[in-house]
Amino acid sequence: MRIKLKHFLWFILILFVQIATAQEGYISGKVTDKKGIPIPGVNIVLKGTSTSTQSDFDGNFKIEAKKGAILTLSYLSFATINVAASNDMKIELVETQNELEAVLVVGYGTQTKRKSTDNIARVTAKDIQQVPVANVQNALVGKLAGVQITQTNGKVDGGMDIRVRGAASISAGTQPLYVLDGIPLITSDESTNGAATNPLITLSPNEIESIDVLKDASSAAIYGARGANGVVIITTKKGKDGKGTFSLNMSQGVSEATHKKSWLNTDQYIELFTEASINGTGDAAEAESTFDFLAQGTDWRNREVNTDWQDLAFQTGLATDVDFSVSGGDAKTKYFFSGAYNNTTGIIDSNELERITARSNISHKISDNFTMGMNLSFSRSIIDRVQDDNSFTTPLQAVAQSPLSPARLEDGTANPNTLYANYLLAADNSFWKTMMRRITGKVFAEYQIIPSLKINSDFAYDLLGQTEDYWQGKNAPFMATDGEAYATSVNNETYIWSNYLTYDAVFAEKHSLNVVAGMEFNKYTRRYQSVTSIYFPDDSFQTIDGGAEVNAGEGNETASTFVSQFGRLNYAYDNKYLFKASIRRDGSSRFGKNERYGTFPAFSAGWIISEESFLKDNNVLSFLKLKGSWGKVGNAEIGNFASRQLYGARPYNLKSGLSFVQAGNDDLTWEKSTQTDVGIEWGLFNKFSFEVDYYDKSTDGLLFDVPKPLSGGGPTTITQNIGKVKSSGFEVTINTKNIENQNLRWTTSFNITTNDSKVEEMPDGQDIVSTFTINRVGENISSFYLVEYAGVDSANGDALYYKNTVNADGSLDRSTTNDYSEAKRIIAGNPFPELMAGLTNTINYKNIDFSFTFQGEWGASIYNSAGKYQSVAADYFDNQTTDQLNRWQNPGDITNVPQARLYGSNGTGESTRFLDKTDFVRLRNLTIGYTLPKTTLKDAGISSVRFYATGVNLLTFTNYNGYDPEARRDDTGIGEEFYSAPPARTIALGVNINF
Fold this sequence. Notes:
There is one protein chain. The protein is mainly β. It has two domains: 22-95, Carboxypeptidase-like, regulatory domain (Immunoglobulin-like), CATH 2.60.40.1120; 137-244 and 334-788 and 828-865 and 913-994, TonB-dependent receptor, beta-barrel domain (Maltoporin, Chain A, Beta Barrel). It is built from nine helices and 55 strands. The strands form twelve sheets. The chain has a 22-stranded antiparallel barrel. It has a five-stranded mixed sheet with strand order 10-15-16-13-14. The longest helix is centred in the first third of the chain and has 20 residues, at 5-24.
């Protein structure tokens, strides 16, 4: 084909003109942090338009814009900035450390901390990554003001107790609502073991981008009837525009108990119990005959056996973590894939967790206005469990055994003739396996109707399935049927369909408006089955079909529904006057037909004073904001049928029948919590930031089973909304940038919280008293209620108690008595801390990073309900703590331990003798890492390699005499310890590799 020269020259000229024109319309640049490290995935928007892009893996970007136009750059945990466009831009972002420009995730949207009028605590991935704990909640301890996080005990499957701003209920649920990528998670405990499991053990920390805790009613009210205990919003990682990245993390750790108690050895045991036998029965014969039995043919007189049962119950734990992630994307499609494996051998014998998780987050921009995506995750956790703390076959109850007893016989089998059932018989001849499977998924779509208005539609699903298999062989303790197998299966599932509109616009450059309005439908179902079989031919058969007789079984199904409408308005004038209002209306099938719907409003306002002309250019006071909020939220955690009149099957003589089992209440509704919050935030020199808040939270309409007239027949109680509690306190958060230069960066975060939780109203004003606690108007929730121990009579060694009877003038009689029945119970302590604090320091020096967190709690007490067995100077043959050697022996002895009297009940009554303060300060975690220089890796195709060592619960400073100030009984009770395992002290080494 012939081309004329002049036509070709014209074509070349036009092409160059187009290229030049095109280049004139585009601006390019690079985004880095203060160290010059590229930041991928930075959002870059041409201000006032919908034109946007993101920086690639190397921090480079290109956007259609003219010189001088304003570009807005934003990225998670970095300050949002506006810059004028120019050629070959070099833009540096400043990390905010979760401060003013940090983007907070709130219900159905986001908001910067600068403009937030709510009280929201936040941590990001870097705050929780590489902390060697098996569950996400444990990684948050000490990092969130106003949030108390306690693992029940040191078992790998131990339940978690999280309280946001104190207790908001007495009889309904007290745990926060967890929302994962917009999905309200199922958090019901389905354990039939007697001890709770943690449903969130199914989550892996490596997939989490951030966790935002909505603490006040203004932030939580958008979740209405489920927000009274706070809301924990978990956001998983997403892909970012740019070159694909691959990250691999591997770590291996070892664990031990944070503390062990001191128990009597054989010499001490024989000495103390011989003396106790003489004092209690008149001679040593009772003790010696028992020694003969316990020794089982060994020579106890020559101390042939000296078994350390505590040492057998504890073991060296191991923690293995491997996780990877792949992420990336372009202008249209973004992806994030991750997988993780965790294998944790607990510090308690026969206790282990193995978990695998996988996640896939994908979004695709179908057109300029339409985006769709899907989040999908899977988790499978297998737990080898031990019995609850109140079982003789749980390992730590082995400390009650005598050191004279051999743990095993000469043939290696467990000794069956010990004081109590030998837990080794259970370890050798039984197992309890729990398997938890979780699938969460969400399909979402977003359509931009006009630049300022979009609509979102999300369909989400959460399935938590759990199976439990409990097998006992013919030689297991208490076995009378040649073996038994017990199996359960439960499926909890919920699906949520959410549709909402978001309007976001700025008028006249001063009026900023964000409005969200939508509806949500939530359906929850549960199906449970269990079966038991007995009489097995051999221990090789360990499933239900191996038994000769199926002797028990049950099954049930249940469901509940929520229907909700919600709306929220955020308004800002001139970026300094802030206002927010929200409302949610919830309807639930759980409540009475007359009170099925509830409305939950909230309001908040703020004033950024530092934006006023008289402070705007102040170099000292860099930020100042006042804020306040008020709102109502609810607590719907009462079960599905509390309002219904129920009849149950009642078979008799192989004939079916019905019985009246629960009285109905058509007016039963949710507990309602009204909260007020006022606060101030200020910054100094752009280096120090302070936040102080005062909160007041009152919950009324508490749910109680109230006695009904016996003349009505049937059940003797009916569930009603009666009662009121109140929590109040201060929260202080201080963040400082101590040093910031090219080689050294040192930041500190400190938080401290006070809490005072009181009972304000009870049914008919009556006290509700349990074995150790009381709920009484004007006192702390679940206060300890005990006889007061007065020490020892130095003349005769009797245990003494204060009478605390009321004198005629209304005062208390503080005289003492050795007759336990003469003493009256008093309020003696608080099971919840009144002061909590956390201190985190992060130091980066060149390629070395170092961080540590201290946690502290003050004002709480623990009641050791096992004390009357293990610390009573040989009242029975349970092994004793060594402090009992300090017993009274001669007239004039001054001691707090009564005379040792076998069977004498000298000081064994439930009393403050076994109540102890739990004040402590703990080095919660410490991490040191080293990142290889980039020059070392440039030819290997690796972007970074970091080696690190990390530890959890390394040091604890406390005067508490028990196992650990955070260990709690796992089968029942509040603020109790009962052979409860302490948490693990873990040290791990790891490596993180990024490609």
